[in-house]
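Service request form, structural biology core

Requester: graduate student, group of Dr. S.
Request type: structure prediction, single chain
Budget code: on file
Notes: please return the result as structure tokens.

Sequence provided:
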Amino acid sequence: MYDPPPEPPSESDCCGTGCADCVFDVYDRECARWRRRQTGGEGDRLRRDLLSATTHKPYRIVSARPLGDDVHAYTFAATPTAVGQLPVAYSQHVHIRLADGLSRPYTPVAVGDDDCSFGVLIKAYPGGRFTGRLLEMAVDDVVEVRGPSGGVRHDGYDSIVMFGGGTGVAGFVGLIGSLLDDNKCETLLRLHYSCKTLDGVLMRKELAGYAAYWNCAVHLYLTRERDWSRCSKSFWYNENITEGRISQDCMSEIIDKQQDLRTLWLICGNDDFNQYIFNSLQNKNIKQDHIQLLDNTIQYLKVP
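Core staff response, request fulfilled:
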């Protein structure tokens, strides 16, 4: 049975800190969605038995490889081995928990449709407890995964403008790819990706491939590239790269080009990056209803 009723979370699944999206609230929503699927003929073959938004399931590490700048690409697969597609929509996130209870949310950049696996990009911070312990683990070691949750609704928009900072670009890679795979999608996609150096651009090959589509543009901003003359010789054909951060002048130009379009503005980066982009959009009179973070909330951001 691929669509069992949601499993109730245990008391230990709740952190007890009053989260805005408590696992028990998630359980209530998942139950309501499950009832609608059962009564409304919305059944599908997604493997909801292998991934739950309310309880943790075992997943093994399939691969782990460094990408540079302390970023690692991990692939996790359901255990025991299974076949099918996980119920994950791009821009949603899953919670990965280690044996000692440490847990972090990550946005899948790829979801396997034949072996119930997903891939994420993980930034290893100096002294980070979670990443430090994860990096000590080996292929075939097992973690626990709960999800998916969050995500953004993008129906009804003429264009989607995305601002990614550092590993935050991971939240957009799968989303863009899934939209471009839809031959009926005519939504204009614009990604503005800020990172330190050209060597630090994550998934550069995938992004260059996306930029070849008529409705997708990718703009890179290199904030700490020291030797620009050397760096510029390594640009690929038709890459759009700017030296420096996403300035206020850049923001004005980006926003002005969207004046006649119904646009969804998406942000994914660290707290400072998110606040900067949010302030820039608000100062240009972009309505808050059309701005979203990939964790599905902008409540912690300060309105300028």
